[in-house]
Amino acid sequence: MNVLLLNSPYIDSIYDFKQEFSVEYPLGLAYLAGMMEQEKIPNDVLDANALGLSLDSAIQRILNKKPDILGLTATTTTIIICSKIAGKIKEKLPNTITIVGGAHLSAFPDACIEEFPSFDYAVQGDGELPLVELYHTLIEGKTVSNDSKRWVPTEKKGGIWFRDHCGKIAHYETIRQFKHLDDIPFANRQKFPNDKYRVGPLMDIGYRGSQIGKIAGSRGCPYRCVFCSEGKSWPPYRSRTPENIFKEMETMYHKEGVRHIFFVDDTINVRTNDLMKLSEMIIKSGMKIYWHCYARVHPMDDEILSAMKRSGCFGIMFGIESGDPHLIKTLGKNINLEQARNAIRLSKKFDLKTLAFFMFGLPGDTPETCENTIRFAKELNPDLAFFSMTVPFPGTELYDNYVQSKVLPTNFTWDAFTLHKKNSMHQTANMSSEEVLYYYNKAHTVFYLRPRYWARVIKRMIQHPQEIKNYWWMMKEFILTHKWIPSPVNPGSRSRA
Fold first, then answer.
1. DSSP code of 273?
2. Three-class SS of residue 439?
3. What angle do CA 33, 9, 264 make, to 5 degrees?
4. Is 179 exposed, middle or buried (0-12, 13-18, 19+ CB in 10 A)?
5. CB-based contacts of 471-474 (< 8 A; 24+ apart in sequence)
6. Which long-range contacts (CB under 8 A, 24 or more apart) does 142-145 make?
7. What is the CA radius of gyration of the chain?
8. How far apart are CA 220 and CA 224, in angstroms?
């Protein structure tokens, strides 16, 4: 039996502009591939998104490969696409087993099995062990229900969900369990189209293709932001040891030629002692690695940022979300505006690129709080402000509140949950979706058409000439896509093969 891991094509339906902006590396699939390599399971990868395939082209490539098991990863916005692909494959290859994982499945595993008959199995949480154990079960001609040496029924979160022989939803977990994240094999990047991946222009320092690599030093998040599922997801927050992370970085550097590393951890500075230790290990190794990351605005101080800078860190992305001093306290982030000011100020002091995330349509947002957010973004003046419209994704406290208050429209579909396109998901108890869109567009215009912002851009280009092409791309994209009614959605992104 052979396994095919699929990253479905989704850019055009979710981010019209993003194919020209960046192509994300499906790190979760790479860790699954690493696990299967360790277990000596025949496997292949199809990143239809990176290859720019249309839906029909992706389906045809899958049919040509004739997988025995098709593994798909799905977010809320891609679950419909994945179900269509799985359904078409089932029509042509009825014996193919489909197993789906990802954020949406972790929120609604049983409901997804009921809603999408084209999925045979749904994985909640970590997928490495459920995937390989399912393979071993099937290769022996057994079912999960009668393979007692590998599976046990459970009522806990996590594990695998499927329809039993009676058509009822069954829920099992693997008997074999990882005691620590260090036990999970390193990501296997060999079968991915590494030449296709690239980061966005602001965090792009010139490396391309296989020179860029992602790594995860932790999974989950210890905080409970109302708009994010990570704090409520299962398993809870866990981290790898600095030694284990460094060993994977060495592998990426010496064996795969990676020079630019993107840490995808939600909050890399949660464990400041581990971060300091990892930074010192990189410095002592002599590896010329450049890296960027997500981080909380607190804790941040000179010692932490100095170590990060000396180890090759060149950019940090901060989730600030709101510029209203009262609203920010209600988001579960456990931060305040002064901490945000300090984090951006210190990052600039160490000449680190700064990206700040802001949201409109948060619970409690009003026109006044939205104006406060725009003013605060201007005050901070990061290298890039990333504005989005709040979406109540499943698995979040926000989604639960929307359901309870009956704010969600009754006829919604999952592919309507998009961050950068106008839809009814953006409405709140206090603001209509049109109002949220208005402040979203206003923020882009007010922030990016300021002399102070472009003074900072010119200064950076003088100090870092290699970034000229990146800022030129941003300026060109801004003009072409906004048409003076600002929206970063680009209707002219290249057509898919």
1. H
2. helix
3. 55
4. exposed
5. 471/201, 473/201, 474/201, 474/202
6. 144/170, 144/172, 145/170, 145/172
7. 23
8. 10
- Write out the two tokens for 243: 């030694």
* 446 vs 455: CA distance, rounded Å: 15
pLDDT in tens, 365-403: 999 999 999 999 999 999 999 999 998 999 899 998 888
- Long-range (24+ apart) CB contacts under 8 A made by 167-176 are 169/110, 169/113, 169/114, 170/144, 170/145, 171/109, 171/110, 172/144, 172/145, 174/129, 174/130, 174/133, 174/150, 175/149, 175/150, 175/151, 176/129, 176/133, 176/150
- d(CA 297, CA 406) in angstroms, rounded, equals 34
Q: In the chain, what are the helix, strand and coil shares in percent, each to the nearest 5?
A: 45, 15, 40
pTM (whole model) above 0.85: yes
* Closest to 294 measured CA to CA, from 262, 260, 319, 317: 317
Domain boundaries, the chain: 3-181, 198-482
Helix, coil or strand: residue 271: coil
Give the Cα separation of 182 and 493 in Å (integer): 40
DSSP label at residue 312: T
Q: Is 5 helix (H, G, I), strand (E, B) or coil?
A: strand
Q: Tokens representing 389?
A: 């419209």
Residue 44, beta-bridge partner list: 4
Angstrom distance (rounded) from CA 153 to CA 271: 35
pLDDT tens track for 103-144: 898 888 999 999 999 999 999 999 999 999 999 999 999 999
CATH topology (fold) of 3-181: Rossmann fold (3.40.50)
Nearest to 486 by CA among 417, 387, 415, 372: 387
CATH ID of 198-482, from 1.10.10.10, 3.40.50.2300, 3.80.30.20, 3.90.1150.10: 3.80.30.20
Contact residues for 167 (Cβ-Cβ < 8 A; gap 6+): none
Cβ(436)–Cβ(428) below 8 Å:
yes
